Amino acid sequence: MHDQVVGVLQALLHYNLSVSAFVNCLLDTKHDFSQFAINDLAANFQSVLASSITHTHLKDSIVLWLRKSQHGWHFSVTNILAEQLENFHLKDMANDMERLAPELWKLLDKQHLSTLIPPTAVAANDNIGDNEEEQYWAKVDGVEQSSGDIDIDIRTLHRVVLVKIVGSHNKKVVIICILIHSTNQKCNAFASVMGIFLHSCNTPEKVIHALARMGISISASSIHFAVHSLSYETYHTLHDMGQSLTVGYAYDNFDIDFKTSMPTIEKAMDTLTHMTSGSLIYLEHDVTADDLKCSAYLWACCMDLLRLHPEPSHSSGLMCCQHWNAYKFLADLVKYGPAYFSCFHTSLRCPETVDQIPVTKMRHAPARAMDINQSKVSGNIEAITDLL
Fold it and tell me: In Å, what is the CA distance from 154 to each residue of 60, 117, 150, 157, 224?
């Protein structure tokens, strides 16, 4: 066998043809003489693939580039930051994996999905969201379970195929993440995000241990380290926000029902616990501390606060808030009312802009939950004191 391999390699060298080029040309050729070689590859594909993956020089080439830290997939659970979690997107990871390891990505690709729709159409609509995915799964199941003629329009079928492609991409990301995590324990971005998500859902530790063994999540102890790191970061964030004097304090009540596993008459009690959540919100739009020093002006005008912002007279005799209420009533009537009113959609005009505030993303940081019953006046005072 060794002499035969050497003879074949010498023949390839004589014709200036590499092994990879020979295999690709063999698979692409339409000549009948090459069919026996293609059939042999198909019959022994599993053994060839297994040998390639376990080979000393080939096994690391598949995930070599994916393991490097510059891709942003290395999370340190003891120093994890909230910004890392906010910037983590499964779609971005899928795009990077497809770009860095196209061969592995194609290997895991589902061929039956790629034949249903042209790649150009997929690229033009690859921003389908999770909400759309949930809406169309019912239709997907209906298409799969139906037999014979299916009464479904082309647009819906197109979207169903896209939903399946997105689901296929997510599965491929999970598979590749398991592979690279098994070769480099520091490449744990997906597992870290998944572990923190499981912790936020109060997932039992037995489930977390099982998923950690599979490489899908980090261990329970690592999750505790990550939560401690995030809590420490939030503590300093709240401290800096409070010292800026340009934040708003928001709080609200929530209830937790601590049910007992076996309620008895002796242990009969109210299991509902009333607590308070809080959050600090930055005052955007270039608000400064000097802008908030207006208490003296407000006290001087406290007898006539309604005239702080006088409204110009309008021909209809309505105030600005009344204009908005009238528009909202008509808009709801056109959109949700009887079908007759839908014909007035084109004649419905938006209300006039009075003093438009630019839309901006509010920055906020959550405070810890407070064991305070906010339904009482004393509870409100205690919650404000605790936040300050």
Answer: 44, 11, 11, 5, 49
